[in-house]
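Supplementary Methods, section 5.1.

A reviewer requested that the exact input to the structure prediction be made available. We therefore reproduce it here, unchanged from the version used in the analyses.
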Amino acid sequence: LALFEIGARYSDGRAGVTADPSQALNWYQMAADKGFAPAQYRLGSMYEKGTGVARDANKAKQFYEQAANQGNANAMHNLAVLYASGALGQQDYSAAANWFTKAANLGITDSQFNLAILCARGNGVTQDLGESYKWFAIAAKGGDKDAGAKRDEVAKAMKPADLDKAKATTEAWKPQQLDNKANGIDVPDA
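The structure derived from this sequence is encoded token-by-token as follows.
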């Protein structure tokens, strides 16, 4: 945790430390080497964006996978985006759907929206308007402004009985509990 906090201070330029992405990278790497999921997620993000290091989608994938496999929801989402976007060479909607589903079930609104699109189109999953409706509706409840309109578009394409079933499934859905160790950090005030 201390290694991560030093990395965060270099990353953000706070607590008397000048922002230095390459120093942040070094400290995050030490924390990641000890298996700290938030550091692995931050490293993935740095490699994906090219912050303090050359952009490298494969290294980003490696770090996102390490964090995601420990339960880091943002890493799951970003890993899914890498697969869906083709940043790793070609689009892999099946892998994207897998990671979007995991992150969506943990309450990540952007993953819910993206999963709804995959379900509507049948990309990486069997086309299922009921599932698409459910995920758009859940994303809309989570504050995504575009999701409500998309939910209503999908509803118009559904049979009334299927829509009623999708609405019931949506109402019954509850997010899974986030693992605080993999997703958050409890840092004392400086």
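The chain is about 70% helix and 0% strand. These observations are discussed further in the main text.
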